[in-house]
Amino acid sequence: MCIRDRENRVVIMETAEPVTEQKSFLTGNPQQKVFSFSDVVFSSEFDSGNLLNVIQVDELHYEIYIMGDFLPNRPGGAYCFWYYFSVTGIQQKSNISFSFRNIGNQSRLFSFGFRPVYKVEPSSNKWRRINSKFEYFKKENEPFTMKFDHLFDYTSSETTYFALTFPFSYIECQTLLEEYEKVYEKSSDVYFHRELVVKSLEGRRIDLLTSTAKNDITIVPEPPIATLFPEGGPRPLRFNKPTIFVTARVHPGETQGSHMMNGLLSFLLADKKDPNNVNAVTASLLLSKFVFKIIPMLNPDGVYRGFFRLDSLGQNLNRYYTNPTLANHPTIYGAKKAILQQHELGSLKFFIDLHGHVNKMGTFLYGNALKGYPQVENILFARLMALNSLNFDFADCNFNEAIMNVKDKIDGLSREGCSRVGIYKETGLPNCYTIETSFQGSKKLNVLPTKYNRAKKAVDPETNLTNPRSKIYEGKPAVYTPEIYEDVGRCICNSLLDFFDENPISRVPNSNCKSLDGIKNDISVKFGLNVTIPIKSKRPTLNCSTAPKDARKKGHSLNPVKDAEVSPKRSMVLRPIKELPKKSASTTKEKPKSKPEEKKSITPTTTGTLKISVIQIQSINPEANNEEEKISYYSTKLPPIDKNNKAKKANAEKKQK
Questions:
Q1: H-only helix segments in 389-476
Q2: Are 614 and 638 in contact (CB under 8 A)?
């Protein structure tokens, strides 16, 4: 049930048997209004609109008041920041001042050079940042004020839209999903399934998309989940592939999440259809390797109402992943159930939640605090993001335990209930992330390694969004646009392929560390993790210091030479190797005709012990540029030989007794 405290704030109380429906306290759409001043009309009567009041000071100056989340004039002015409205009827060439008199004090964001956005219809449908006079101030006994001027350099019949940042409404999201559904519902190579997980408190859709290539498909559908999928249609078919789960817009004012999501969807679906697109090959491979589960909008009620952070019950939904209920948090309840189902099916490999950040510059991520090798792979994804994006700031990424349970200043809710931490604690999945990107722009540009095309064995050219000398950047940190946000979404796709060492056009080979294992080793050293990096090879390799005594009995091989005795007190790590061809008994005893000077061969004696204390393992790299680089040798010391066979005699005596 819900009650009000002494300050008239709503408190959600859990009941033993929550009701199936919960009506919002906020009736109607009080933030969506129309104000007329002779021929001039202000309106916020549309999806995501927010305008509480307008006062005309004179013909060239208007005072704007916006509505905070959930209720007007919430105590403390919490989350009174998002606005989105239109203006018509302004005479051409008029320079109008807009003063926002009750906007939240985000002076830190404004100090970065932040500017609101506008667009003019029907002459242009592109959003741009305000480039005229902008100021913010706090006078004594007056509210914090933000003020900007705008020159209406077009006819009075055209409509100008103003917003805090680049909008992406609930209706725009639904339209985009419908377009993808029409294109791919009968596709021969791409599997695309859209289903209604649950409806929000106010009856809006929470869509779950399943997208992958049609390889490794089964005839078995995913099992239904009680209380979810109310439309009752068929569930998506299961695939023998790992699942990447991505969500966005749990905070409605963080529209950056939707633009990043649009870039990810475009990479997977739109870019793939264009054979001339540089991402077409990579997208096809990505879909063949993974199943993508996507929830594009977690808080459609807040988005539609023009809220900044909360839902229509005044809740920060990204604090309820620990124990969501169908009655009070249906969108989070449904999302969590869908995510955990992938974990129970053994498919879940990555979870990513997309956000915008008001108080920081650049793009970065939050991960969880893990131990040992899982922490290396946890940090690895962030390093790969920095290799693939000019704007991703690895230095601002945070993997500390403190951010897993810090409490919010306004409502006191802990981040233990956020998606990244909640899903990790339920599943133990190391790769759970919150990706954040600034409302303003980047503070620096990365120096990206060149893209190595493995098929062509050549360097691929850069795009405008990855070339720091293009007109977008001109060698300087950029002010973010929807196109740059979308590029972050594409960067996620490339980084996923790099993470699993499957990227056909990768920057990793030309990076400072040269390989994925090199990056992992670098992470281990720089973060003081001091862990042994497991090496990927067809033959399992073990660290001898931790190898079980009966490892060889179970079919494991500590090195390519059978019966080589390795001291458990010594640590021997072998790099990736190819199997050496087995030699027959006749050829084994023969000495090779020619040998490199410093190369030692391994010749067994009649007793089976080794005569030498050093072995050399040959590794072949088929992707090397020349013959000398194709073959490399690694040496490792063996323990001293037991000439008297004392250990074997002792073991034989024990067996006889």
A1: 419-427
A2: yes
